[in-house]
Amino acid sequence: MVNASLAYEILLYINSFYFGLFATCELGTLILKSVLIIEKYNVRETPWTLGQDYAVLLGLMVIEAIRLILGRKGSLSERDIPVMFSVLLTIPSIIGVLYLLVLQVVVLRIEYIWCTLMLAIQTLEFIFATMFIVTMCKAPSYD
Where in the cell is it found (predicted)? Predict the structure, then answer.
């Protein structure tokens, strides 16, 4: 039997460091793409689409920070309500990463790697958080 609480806590700990790296690198590549796209392609739609990319990244940063804080508090105190909210916030977070992976103006190869790894971590967190919630909601057995 897998200790879902321990696995979930380890994944949250790993994700707290990885997301900082992910957000910093994604912001850096977005700034680089802004400069290169505006210089290389003189497209009128570029400021709007780049603004949309920045907005998605900013929203992802906020949602992911709240999700990680709720997940850590719920996991450490062994309460299921904050973990449930963390699981609910995983859905918009996954959608934000999928936007960065698929729908950006220009997607670099390194972004495919970053976003795929982020999706893998989020999927594993979702699975172990669900297992944690199920074990917390189950009536205790005194065998």
Answer: Membrane
